């Protein structure tokens, strides 16, 4: 009897020890899993009653429908889906995991100049400009916006009104970006108003000139044309990247706008940034964004920071691996498309394009040709007065010249869409005589 009791007691103690050991092992496993997810990414689905199934991607948005030989080809928008191929090659390098408890506060950095700028995003933006050499960053305040359009509106707010209290005239040389008039006049502001072509409109001494370079839509290199002593400029550098144009200088203007969408192709991230020299102007722009949207998405900034880091790392950490070089990839794609389009236009007898521009590029360290993100295509066919409508009847959607302040025999065509869309477009253009 005593032996059985001793045996039973030993079994209980043994079971307890096994239970403790199992509990410790489970806790260690949970801790290891937490550390892995916290610092190396990963996550769980919340479907199936907490099944714990690992997920590595989110459900993709539908986007535009795929292009077939018979479908309508919409090249009206500059939707940069050309970059999809590059980022698929990068695999998970640009992937981030944001835990549910992170980025909950409105505030990013109360100690910084702009309280809603994520420090990591600012570091990568400044790093990128130093890598490419397209803009001076030292001595500039960096602001972030929901796309460069919001920053454009913030800049108009900061520079207005004129000293006499009258609305500022906003001008840009034609052909100008088609959204400038509509965005400027959208709110019917008493601070500023759209006054049209800077080459023909008398703007007096109270104008704001919008300088888009390379220019949207025609790819030309622009300088300010107004000579007013008290005039102000906003430089739109959305396309001043080496895949589109030679980098000839490090820009150092008072207000310079950039956007993630045309730099890396991530239009859906809806993020732009401004480099602003004057502190008071930067503070007013910050106030506009604060009142307009109470800051800018921190999630978008974190994603963009990772994307820009991958771009910079490709050049600084593994420059011999061509597959990692975003600007080289995009430049090759754009150059190939432009070569094919120019060949078709040359044999058409009814179309023309602006002359090819070449210059020494400080980034590439050689003479390179410009490959604008849009084709500014003119039609010389008799009887065609509205080129946009002419192409629409042939299932090609473009944006007509009247929206850019010029005649209707010219259209803007996006060169940034998918290979499938570009190939169908090129085939249809080649068939027109």
UniProtKB/TrEMBL annotation:
InterPro entries: Alliinase_C (IPR006948), Alliinase_N_sf (IPR037029), Ethylene_sulfur-biosynth (IPR050478), PyrdxlP-dep_Trfase (IPR015424), PyrdxlP-dep_Trfase_major (IPR015421), PyrdxlP-dep_Trfase_small (IPR015422). SUPFAM superfamilies: PLP-dependent transferases. One of its GO terms (biological process) is amino acid metabolic process. Pfam families: Alliinase_C (PF04864). It comes from Setaria italica. Residues 46-74 are annotated as: Disordered. This is Alliinase C-terminal domain-containing protein. The chain crosses the membrane at residues 14-35.
